[in-house]
């Protein structure tokens, strides 16, 4: 293979593909990035055991002198990012790589591309079209709530459902829930659990203006085995996680608010951040919220270091005053996902879930389990 391409263009494609690469790859070759020429230009592919990102450099953006392919080692990404202008990449039959520009010449060893795993075989079918901004919002508002426990793999992913012109993302670690839904023209139906790590990396390379094709690829049985997102710049593939997702919907439908307090979200977040400085010294990051018609009081104790409280003006209170103890870190996480100026906190009972929402336009809901404490 021999190509001439702008270094910044190649560096960007490599960086996007590298988002799929695991920090601890199961095989050495998966630490590298595959570059291969095609009739349309050059494909740049990064992969892990579950996710693949394939970036595209179009034919008019690259000069292909000799067709071929090679797997670049990880160090090549850093080297190319330091170069400027057009570079020539020349690969010999033993996968030795020479990278040249006007002032520099670098020689490194590559890997055999035949050993690199191929992207999943996709049944493209009908896809759901959406903007990059819409998909980024769905990921941002849910992926932070997944579990990190590898021994329960299904809740390390986001449950994605397409049905009845509705797309829904749901995530839980069994102690909190994040869910959002959007009405749009859905061309396919089904449900799949997608690893959150891959979705978070996908969010980083999507532009708001991107026009996306989102879809499920299914087996003959109708079971979803790959979720994909395709744009003009790249295609993202993720194999789905096996297992049965917790029946969170049933739990959510049974939760009924007894009292609801509304506060200014920025003021509440600022106050919680202050009290969290003390609360995070405790193992459970515990803070106590006490609501009445005038204000919401946030209290926290530091492990032998003191205590603090801060009051936030209440915009409204429906129902009776209440007190509840929560994990402050969980609340801080969900506040980052809410864009509204007004925050609603729904109290559902002494030892039942607390619900956080923005305004109705967001279509998102966050549920946090309280701590068992004395009144």
Automatic annotation (TrEMBL):
This protein's UniProt keywords: Cytoplasm, DNA replication, DNA-binding, DNA-directed DNA polymerase, Nucleotidyltransferase, Transferase
InterPro entries: DNA_clamp_sf, DNA_polIII_beta, DNA_polIII_beta_C, DNA_polIII_beta_cen, DNA_polIII_beta_N
Domain DNA polymerase III beta sliding clamp C-terminal: 260-371
Major subcellular location class: cytoplasm
Localisation per UniProt entry: Cytoplasm
DNA polymerase III beta sliding clamp central domain span: 130-247
Superkingdom of the organism of origin: Bacteria
Record bears the keyword Transcription: no
Transmembrane segments annotated in the record for this chain: none
GO molecular function, one term: DNA-directed DNA polymerase activity
Domain DNA polymerase III beta sliding clamp N-terminal: 1-118
Signal peptide (from-to): none
Entry keyword Ubl conjugation: no
GO BP of this protein: DNA strand elongation involved in DNA replication
One GO CC term on file: DNA polymerase III complex
NCBIfam families reported in the protein's UniProt record: dnan
Subunit structure and binding partners: Forms a ring-shaped head-to-tail homodimer around DNA.
Family: Belongs to the beta sliding clamp family.
Function: Confers DNA tethering and processivity to DNA polymerases and other proteins. Acts as a clamp, forming a ring around DNA (a reaction catalyzed by the clamp-loading complex) which diffuses in an ATP-independent manner freely and bidirectionally along dsDNA. Initially characterized for its ability to contact the catalytic subunit of DNA polymerase III (Pol III), a complex, multichain enzyme responsible for most of the replicative synthesis in bacteria; Pol III exhibits 3'-5' exonuclease proofreading activity.
Protein name: Beta sliding clamp
Taxonomic source organism: Paenibacillus graminis
Species classification: Bacteria, Bacillati, Bacillota, Bacilli, Bacillales
């Amino acid at each position: 293979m021999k190509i001439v391409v702008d270094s910044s263009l190649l560096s960007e494609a490599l960086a996007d593909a590298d988002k799929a690469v695991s920090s601890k790859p199961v095989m050495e070759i998966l630490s590298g990035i595959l570059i291969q020429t095609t009739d349309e230009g050059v494909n740049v592919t990064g992969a892990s055991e579950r996710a693949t990102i394939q970036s595209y450099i179009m034919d008019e953006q690259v000069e292909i002198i000799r067709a071929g392919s090679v797997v670049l080692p990880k160090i090549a990404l850093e080297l190319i990012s330091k170069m400027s202008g057009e570079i020539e990449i020349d690969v010999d039959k033993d996968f030795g790589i020479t990278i040249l520009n006007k002032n520099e010449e670098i020689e490194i060893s590559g890997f055999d591309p035949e050993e690199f795993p191929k992207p999943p075989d996709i049944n493209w079918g009908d896809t759901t079209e959406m903007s990059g901004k819409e998909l980024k919002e769905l990921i941002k508002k849910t992926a932070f709530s997944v579990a990190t426990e590898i021994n329960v793999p299904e809740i390390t992913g986001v449950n994605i459902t397409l049905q009845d012109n509705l797309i829904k993302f749901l995530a839980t670690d069994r102690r909190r829930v994040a869910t959002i839904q959007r009405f749009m023209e859905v061309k396919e139906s089904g449900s799949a659990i997608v690893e959150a790590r891959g979705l978070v990396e996908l969010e980083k390379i999507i532009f708001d203006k991107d026009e996306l094709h989102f879809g499920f690829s299914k087996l003959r049985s109708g079971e979803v085995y790959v979720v994909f997102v395709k744009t003009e710049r790249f295609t993202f593939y993720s194999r789905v996680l096996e297992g049965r997702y917790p029946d969170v919907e049933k739990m959510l439908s049974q939760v009924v608010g007894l009292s609801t307090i509304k506060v200014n979200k920025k003021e509440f977040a600022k106050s919680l951040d202050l009290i969290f400085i003390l609360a995070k010294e405790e193992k459970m990051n515990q803070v106590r919220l006490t609501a009445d018609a005038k204000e919401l009081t946030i209290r926290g104790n530091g492990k032998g270091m003191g205590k603090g409280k801060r009051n936030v003006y209440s915009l409204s209170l429906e129902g009776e005053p209440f007190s509840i103890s929560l994990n402050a870190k969980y609340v801080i996480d969900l506040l980052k996902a809410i864009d509204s100026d007004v925050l609603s906190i729904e109290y559902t009972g002494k030892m039942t879930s607390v619900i956080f929402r923005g305004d109705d336009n967001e279509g998102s809901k966050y549920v946090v389990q309280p701590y068992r404490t004395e009144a």
